[in-house]
Amino acid sequence: MRALTLSAGELLRLDDPAGIEVACDAGRVWITEERGLDDFWLVPGDSVRLTRRGLAILEATQSARVRITRHPVC
Fold first, then answer.
1. 73 burial type by CB count under 10 A (0-12 exposed, 13-18 middle, 19+ buried)
2. 46: Cα separation from own chain's centroid
3. Please, what is the Cα angle at 47 between 49 and 11, to 5 degrees?
4. pLDDT tens track for 47-69
5. Quick check: 20 and 50 in contact, CB under 8 A?
6. Which of 5, 24, 49, 73 has a 20 to 30 Å separation from 65 between CA atoms?
């Protein structure tokens, strides 16, 4: 697990994110996956497990704290 604090507008690039879980502990973040049809908006208490290979971009739309955990992909 990796905990990060992001400033408003800060971007995080996630390469090959399949199996990564992003949990929001504070603030608000937006996540989009390459070739994905849906984007994700996370607020405190929310989490999402990413499923696509390629690239995902996470942006803090306000100061945020997130936890990133990689889970095995079957």
1. exposed
2. 11
3. 85
4. 999 999 999 999 999 999 999 99
5. yes
6. 73
Q: Which domains does the chain have, with CATH numbers?
A: 2-70 (2.60.120.10)
CA–CA separation, 17 and 70 (whole Å): 8
Judged on CB neighbours under 10 Å (0-12, 13-18, 19+), 12 is middle
Amino acid (1-letter code) at residue 50: L
pTM of the entire structure?
A: 0.92
Q: Is 55 helix (H, G, I), strand (E, B) or coil?
A: strand
Nearest to 71 by CA among 17, 8, 7, 6: 17
CB atoms inside a 10 Å sphere around CB 31:
23
